[in-house]
């Protein structure tokens, strides 16, 4: 059976050229001139893989990726000319299989990536961690979260999952759903769309409800009927959205935007926030009645810095997943590499750890196991506060460290820096703990 690829590209010449190449390579191709048209095409046709430009009108490539993943998961390849590293990391965190720099070499980069992704789809699925086992770690905090998931998951109670950004709140939400026995999970981040679009996305819209609404469309709440609705960043919901959500949760009834018909839904709600909802209630910024409706029970996810014993297990899984995603052999890593991971505070928690490991694999020359210098190289790309001059110096220091085999003393001599200057800059760049201090 011929695999079908959805190509989203707003430039006609590029769209026609890539479409022709893909067809000549034996694929069926669906083409769309912008992200919104691509999403409509995805919803109405069987698609095995999506290839999308990042910069498009109506809905950009990242927005299309997130919308597609809410419907079902397929391999998604993004490309762009001159994309910043942060854009690449955002795409990876959102679930992109690969981010290619345009123009790319079709025979050496694009087609092998597509074929590897489609071949992976044909493989028998590997065993996956499900339910409470999704949340990794051996620390008391991790064990407590798993115990709460096992106890609360099978109940119909609404759950509020709290914790810092990147700590794994969606992982907990998926674990709760998988222990609930409900058939499907629908996820939505309140901050994902402009406020004017959120209500239509959640509650659906009738034809003509707003400009561009050319047909009636069910919202995510209707799609979640009978299953679980995960609402991320609930603390950022507007007062109007809070009121409409409360009505649905209390009555099980909703009206689409621009419509009068009442539709009934039965769903279990899991909400998450990095904000202090109790404080927002006291300040009058969040409805007290909605707070008690979504927080029938609460699971607090501890930050990674409070459970350093979990870093090794999480990092090992991330490294294997990232290696599979970018089609390389799973890497080995030295004990010093894992020790260096544990020295970091990870203010972005597991999300930052994943981004650092993804960058480390890009720095890795594959001639040996991952070393602390590979992590140092990765962290230099995750320091947005550095000036261009500092970034350049940081990269030179990391490269000198790598060439010296991890010996800071030899590295600083190679750069002609004093011990004091090296020590000051190493700490300024947030790299302390990645290897021994220069004496």
Characteristic terms for this protein:
Rossmann fold; 3 domains; five-stranded parallel β-sheet; 19 helices; 12% strand; globular
Q: How is this structure best described in words?
A:
38% of the residues are buried. The longest helix has 17 residues, at 106-122. By secondary structure, the protein is an alpha/beta fold. A hairpin with an 8-residue loop joins strand 9 (253-254) and strand 10 (263-264). The mean pLDDT is 84. The protein folds into three domains: 4-122, Rossmann fold (3-Layer(aba) Sandwich), CATH 3.40.50; 131-302, 3-Layer(aba) Sandwich (Rossmann fold), CATH 3.40.50.300; 307-428, Helicase, Ruva Protein, domain 3 (Orthogonal Bundle), CATH 1.10.8. The chain is globular. The chain contains 19 helices and twelve strands. Helix 2 runs parallel beside helix 3, helix 10 crosses helix 12 and helix 15 packs across helix 16 (372-380). The strands form three sheets. The protein has a five-stranded parallel beta sheet, sandwiched between helices. A five-stranded parallel beta sheet has the order 7-8-11-6-12. The N and C termini lie far apart (64 Å).
Mean pLDDT: 84
Distance between the first and last residues' Cα: 64 Å
Q: Which strand order does the major sheet show?
A: 2-1-3-4-5
Structural class: alpha/beta
Known CATH architecture of the largest domain: 3-Layer(aba) Sandwich
Main sheet specs: 5 strands, parallel
Shape: globular
The CATH fourth-level homologous superfamily of the largest domain: P-loop containing nucleotide triphosphate hydrolases
Total E-strand runs? 12
Number of helices, counting only DSSP H or I runs of 4 residues or more: 19
Kindly estimate the percentage of residues that lie in beta strands according to DSSP: 5-15%
**Total of domains:** 3
CATH class of the largest domain: Alpha Beta
| Helix content class | 40-55%
In CATH terms, what is the fold-level topology of the largest domain?
Rossmann fold
* Rg over CA atoms: 24 Å
């Amino acid at each position: 059976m011929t695999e079908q690829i959805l190509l989203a590209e707003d430039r006609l010449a590029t769209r026609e050229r890539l479409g022709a190449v893909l067809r000549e390579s034996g694929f069926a191709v669906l083409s769309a001139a912008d992200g919104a048209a691509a999403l409509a095409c995805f919803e109405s046709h069987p698609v095995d893989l999506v290839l999308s430009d990042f910069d498009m009108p109506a809905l950009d490539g990242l927005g299309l990726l997130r919308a597609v993943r809410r419907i079902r998961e397929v391999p998604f390849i993004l490309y762009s000319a001159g994309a910043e590293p942060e854009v690449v990391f955002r795409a990876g965190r959102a679930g992109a299989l690969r981010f290619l720099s345009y123009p790319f070499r079709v025979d050496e980069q694009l087609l092998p990536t597509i074929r590897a992704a489609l071949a992976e789809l044909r493989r028998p699925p590997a065993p996956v961690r499900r339910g409470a086992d999704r949340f990794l770690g051996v620390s008391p905090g991790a064990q407590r979260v798993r115990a709460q998931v096992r106890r609360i998951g099978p109940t119909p109670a609404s759950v509020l999952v709290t914790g810092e950004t990147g700590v794994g709140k969606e992982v907990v939400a998926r674990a709760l759903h998988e222990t609930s026995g409900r058939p499907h999970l629908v996820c939505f981040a309140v901050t994902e769309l402009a406020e004017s679009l959120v209500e239509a996305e959640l509650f659906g819209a009738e034809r003509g409800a707003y400009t561009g609404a050319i047909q009636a469309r069910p919202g995510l709440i209707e799609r979640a009927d009978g299953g679980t609705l995960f609402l991320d960043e609930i603390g950022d919901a507007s007062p109007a959205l809070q009121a409409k959500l409360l009505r649905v949760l209390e009555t099980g009834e909703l009206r689409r935007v621009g419509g009068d018909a009442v539709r009934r839904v039965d769903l279990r709600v899991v909400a998450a926030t990095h904000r202090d909802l109790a404080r927002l209630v006291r300040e009058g910024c969040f409805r007290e009645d909605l707070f008690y409706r979504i927080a029938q029970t609460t699971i607090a996810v501890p930050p990674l810095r409070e459970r350093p014993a979990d870093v090794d297990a999480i990092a090992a899984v991330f490294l294997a997943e990232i290696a599979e995603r970018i089609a390389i052999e799973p890497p080995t890593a030295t004990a010093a590499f894992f020790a260096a991971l544990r020295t970091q505070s990870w203010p972005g928690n597991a999300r930052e750890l994943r981004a650092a490991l993804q960058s480390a694999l890009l720095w890795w020359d594959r001639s040996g196991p991952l070393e602390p210098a590979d992590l140092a190289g990765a962290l230099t790309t995750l320091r947005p506060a550095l000036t261009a001059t500092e970034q350049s110096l940081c990269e030179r220091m990391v490269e000198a460290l790598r060439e010296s085999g991890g010996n800071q003393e030899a590295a600083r001599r190679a750069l002609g820096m004093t011990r004091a200057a090296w020590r000051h800059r190493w700490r300024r760049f947030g790299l302390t703990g990645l290897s021994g201090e220069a004496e």
